[in-house]
Every structure is written in C-alpha cells, then in structure tokens.
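Appendix B. Chain record.
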Amino acid sequence: MTDGVRSTCPYCGVGCGVVLDADGAGGLTVRGDPDHPANRGRLCSKGSALAETVDVRGRLLAPRIKGREASWDSALDRVATRFARTIAKHGPDSVAFYASGQMLTEDYYVANKLMKGFVGTANIDTNSRLCMASTVAGHKRAFGTDTVPGTYEDIDEADLIVLVGSNLAWCHPVLHQRALAAKAARGTKIVVVDPRRTASCDGADLHLPLRIGSDVALFNRLLVAIYEGGALDTRYLQQVDGFDDTLRRAFCADAGPTGLDPGLVSWFCRLWIAHERVVTIFSQGVNQSSAGTDKVNAILNCHIATGRIGRAGMGPFSVTGQPNAMGGREVGGLANMLACHLDLEDPMHRSAVRAFWDAPRMPERPGLKAVDMFRAVADGRIRALWIMHTNPAVTMPEADAVREAIRTCAFTVVSDVTAATDTARLADVLLPATAWAEKDGTVTNSDRTISRQRAVLAAPGQARPDWWHVAEVGRRMGWARAFDYASPVEIFREHAALSGIAGGFGRDFDISGLSDLSAADYAALPPTRWPVATKRGGRFFADGRSFHPGGRTRMVPVAWRPPQAARAPRFPFRLNTGRIRDQWHTMTRSGRSPRLSSHLAEPFVEIHPEDAARLGVAHDTLVELESPTGRAVLRATITDRTRPGTLFAPIHWTGETAPTGRIDALVAGATDPVSGQPESKASVCAARAFAAGWYGFAVSRRPVRPESDYWAVATTQAGWRVEMAGRTAPADWETAARALFDLPSAESQVLTDPARGLARLAFHEGERLLAALFVGPAPLGLMRDYLATLPESDVLTGRAPADRPDPGPTLCACFNIGVNTILTAIETRGLMSVEAVGAALSAGTNCGSCRPEIAALLDAALTREAAE
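Structure tokens predicted for this chain:
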C-alpha cells in the first residue's frame, strides 16, 4: 500500500491519481499514484509541479463585501437577500450561476439543485460550455445520451490512433505516453489531424494539416471511402437509423475544403479502413467551432458505419479539458440538461427530478448558454450573477465586452481562492473557497472513472468548500431542509440515488450501486468507472443499441460549412487559440510555479515566415493583433508550424499577468447552433508590427506591475521576471525604475547610453540584489534565466560568470532541466538521440511532452556539426 493521501490531479480531464504527503508546514510532496488506472504513476509537468502551487500567498482568506472584509453571516445574508429580491421583482430568469469544471461533483450537484429545483431557472451554465459542449450534443444526437463509448484501455489496444484537433502531447501528456507505448509495443499507427504541426506530430506516422474548420469535409470523404472500400459493418447497421441519408450527404461533397493533397487524404482513408482497431481521439479543435457538433457526428458516423465502437481497441474518444467537466455533465451543470443525463425538456424526467428533490418549481425550457448568458448580463436581463471558480472576464469570447458586462451587473458574487483575477476584481461579494489540496469530494475523468479528491491540507483562514457556500445560501433563501448537508458524502449519496431514477428511465448514467455508501466507504472509495449498477465491461454501444427511444443508434447527415466569420481585406488572418505545455487556463494555479513559468514566460503569436516577411515582423519583436472585438500585443514567434494566413496564440494570459495578452478579447462570440459552444479557433483578425521604441527586461524580489504599453510578468524562485516594451521611453530611466520597483531610496548602479537607447540599472540593499532593469531599442539578448535568480555578482553584464553556467530556459519542466544544459550535454558527451539525452539527464523520461523539443535541439546540433 502506498503511504500518503490518495487524491486526483486538478488539471486536465485525464484524471491522474496522485499521492500527497503534507510536510507539516503548509506544503506537501506530490507523486503519481502507481495504482490509479488513469496514469499508473505517471504525471505530466503540471502534475509534477503541484507542490509549488499550494502556498497561501495571495489567497482570499475572508469574505469581502465591496472590497472590505466581512463575516460569513453578513456575506451570505447579502447574497441570499439580493438573489431573493431580484427573483421576487424580476422573476427567476433574472439570476444566473456560472460554474466551472474545477468544481467537485458534489459542489456542482448542489448548485444545480439550487438553481433548477428551487430558484426555478435553468440559467446555470459552466465553462465546460467552452470545452466539450459540442461533444455532449453530438453524443446525444447519435446515442440519445451524453455517453463516452470507450475507455483509456482502448488506447493501449488500438492498431490506429487518430488525433483530431488534439495536441495530446501537450494537453494530455499521460494519454499521449500511452499512445506512444502502444506504438512501441504493438506497432500502433498514429495520425494527427490538425492545422498546426504540434508536438503530437513527433512520432506520428502521418500529419494532415487541414484548413481550420474543415474536419467535416475530411470525415465525410472517409465515410465515402469506407463505403467504396467495402468496410461497412452491415450487421451493425441493422440497428442504426440514418445511414442512407448520411452517406448521400457525404457523397454530395469532397475533401476540397480541407486544402489537403488528395494523396494524403487517400493515405489516411486507406490506413483507417485497413486497421479495424481504430481509436479516434478528439478535443478542442473539434469542439470549439461553430460547426463543432457536426464535426463530432462526422467522426461518430465513421465508427458507427464500421461497427468500430464499444469493443476493445476501437471507438470515438472525446478527451475533456478540465478535471471535472464530466462530473459537471453528470449532474446537469449545463443550461440544457437535468442531473444524471436526464432531459430538461422531457416532462416525465422533469417531474421525477422535481419529486425526488421535493422542489417547489422546475424550469420547463433550457436556460441561457454561456455566450448568451453574458449577453443577458450586459443588457440587464440578468441582474444577479454568481460565478464560481472560473474567470470569464478573460476566458469568454469577446472578453472585453464580458468584462464590462460583469462590471455593470447589478449584483455579482464570486467564489474563488483568490481576489486577484480579472473577474474577482469586479465582484460585489467575494467568498473564499478551498483549493484543490483542501477539497473533499469526487471528480469524473474522460473515461467515466469517478475518483476521490481528498483533503491533505487544512483550509486557510475562513475558506470553505463550494458546496457549503451554495447550501448556506439555499438555507437562507428558505429551503433549509433541502440543503441541510453536513458533509460531501451526504451529497454524493443523494446524487447516486437520483441516478437510480435515471437508470429506471433506461438512461446510461447509473451509479445507484453507490447510494448506500457509508462515510468510511466513501472515504476509501477507489477509482470506479460508471455505470455501477450494470455490467458493461466499461464500454457502450458494441451491439448497436443506444438510449434513443426504440434503442436504435443514429447516424446524422452533416455537411461542411466554413467558419462563421469570413476573412476580409481588413481582417485577413484566421486566428487559432489553444494551450501551451506547462500552463493551465488563466494560470491562477500553474502560474504560481516558477518551474512551469520558465518554459514560455510571456504571451506569443505564431506567424508563418511568409506572413512575417510581408508584415516586416522580425523574430522576438512584438506584433499587434486586432479583430472586430478586441486588440492584443504579443511576442512574435516566426515558424512554419502554422499555415500561411493563420496565426496561433495561447489563451493563458490575463490582466494580472499580461494585459495585452488577453487573447479571447479578439475571439468573436460566434457559436455552434446546436451546442452553443463558441468558435475559439477560427476568428478573423489583422496583424501588424508593433512600433516599439524600447524593449525591457526586469527582475525583482517584489511583485511588479508596470505601466508600459506591453508587459508580461512571471514568477521565479527568487521573485518575479518581467518583459516590457513601449512606444516612448521615459525621460529618466532611474526615476522610472525606482517607481517600477517601489525602491525610492535603495542603492543603485546605473549605466546608460542615451544615444543608443541603452540603460542597465541594478538596485541593492548592501550586497543583496533587490531588482534590475535592462533596456534597449531592440529585443534584448540576455541570460534571462540566470538573471531571474537575482545573482549577487555583477548583474549589469546580463551574462552568467564563466564559472556559473546558465542552464537556459527550462525545457524539461518535470526535472527542471534547461536548454543550455541539454545542448552542453549533446556537445560534450556526444549524445545522438532523445533516448540518450534522457539516459544522461532524465529530460523527457517522465511525461515526455518535451521530447519533440529535445529532438529539435539534436537536429540543430547535428546540422551544425555537418556544416562544420
């Protein structure tokens, strides 16, 4: 038995098990749980660095009303009173709740019960709407329920794995390692379908760089090839409706919109047809689209037509972006769902849930989905808003408009772990919540495995669990008996019992076998894949039977249509957005880790060399982007990873870390007509070189918040590092630097060359370096990672001493190994492969997400050697 507390990683939907050991001083150690079926002991760079994120620095420790600390009673009374008055005056649809995949299932359940059963509105939606709503809609169209057919074990047993709109190597590294292990063990082929060449292409057998948004065209062509190649499963299709119409629609189109070489398309189709055990893993590139639901069904159609579903090593597989996106879907956390996969618009389902809850009312129609919800906040239809564990002022499309809507809302409540987010700063009432290592409850991962999240640290200050926040407000609004919970196990048992009613309706989600768990059983609950009350071997739909009335699976005719926003002379670029390897959402947690912050420390935009040359943009200079809804300034990364005419920018930066890096300000609020999911990967924009008059880099022991035209701040082991730039330089750099660092009287060293626009300044307290600033007219060539240590030696050189090598930017975050360390080892030890680098330095041997970058360093070194 592994010592320590078994819990679950709070990042992506892989749902990795972790073992936590508290150190007695508010910190902990984190290691992978070797017995958890999701990860078998592996962790990615983010999971490996979790111990660096749990200190209470910056935590919200007490309730606040209008920015002032208040008691829990006064804060909760204020929330309950304002919601009750708003409902009495304007009706239940005048209030809304915006939830998060960071919430535990028990938290989600209580919030859904309050809003739908007692307030009487379906205006409860979640940031999972931005993540997997199109998959939910596609599943329901095909199967009658939101059911993920397969399991992670299918990856291990597949002969062909197709990654569609999924940079699995960076976003779900532990699953990517399973795919690579299958390739090594059984020769599994890997195909990547993605407009960009990503880290997932390393080790792939084929990359299809299709045009943004053209997935339906590709999979319709595959369906035709399946028919023409005689690969249909006619026996399976006897249980399926819609095949003829679906095939007819597919025949009416071709793969032209993909922009792919026909030979590549044919190769892909031959691979797919030749390998019966096919797993198609899809993620945000499919979902975040105005045609996302059709993309999902285009993929499902190919698996249904061949019967390659519900059996070992085959099936469509949606991988979710958040730790409990699935749990939120299970409890009805979306505005168009009821708990336990029951249908809000079905009178029998609605009546059953209402009776189970003994609820006074139940909405009869879906509520407002995320984009429409914040538009209703903006125009005054929603007058009281509760936001829990999410940051919509940054993450929503048209983020500037959403930020303004929240700011002007009559009453806004935010439950979170910190007051320092773009959204929390707009709240009328702030409620301090427990963080992941303090939480107790359950989450469900992408393959339907329910895992326990267990508290290992005491909640700091007055922080309380999310379910407690909601239950307390429910009691104060007059529903004391319905929300009389004393612990999460009581909520879990109620949720499990309700799922038995869903099972009685013939629905998929049934964990009623867990409804009588004792507190001890709940405390010890091992990872458990649902359904629990029936035996399905973990997979669904192998027999073609689904949860539609009559039990028949459905194929859905779909046709390619372009992204909603059309490119125009004023906005000629297509903007793609996504994640980077070592950061998470808006960095509220991951940004606290110096190790994670050192890989890519500022917002950037990938731009093709042809476009960069045409725009006069040089590598590492700044680029200004503009769309119909917003503006951003980002660092230029010139690369052929992206196609000409397209740009890629990450989603993580906020007004707290890089105000001009809030990329969702540029994303239009176009949505899928079925799922309501925003199109976050195909907005239009213009790009131009940013006319910077100066560039700067600073390090400081104290927090820094510049006022320059561009800045980005990241945490380090010694303090903070800052990239800056501006159009016009200050008249006196020393005065400006003292103000920046708030060091009016510190000792200083100043070197300036006004004619060349150069300045270097260092501030000391005795021998101790407090801060330093480096300025020049162009991007600065400094040893940033060395300077971030705030060294005591002559810092103004900007270089590490010869006897103290600079490791360079962190490349392997799992083992904190820098680029320069790897390059030195390659050159001095004669390392010739990624495996050799791993054996020598450990780099790339844990989650493996840095292996493509190690391979690139090796290629560059070998190219240099050949040239010499």
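Further analysis of this model is presented in Appendix C.
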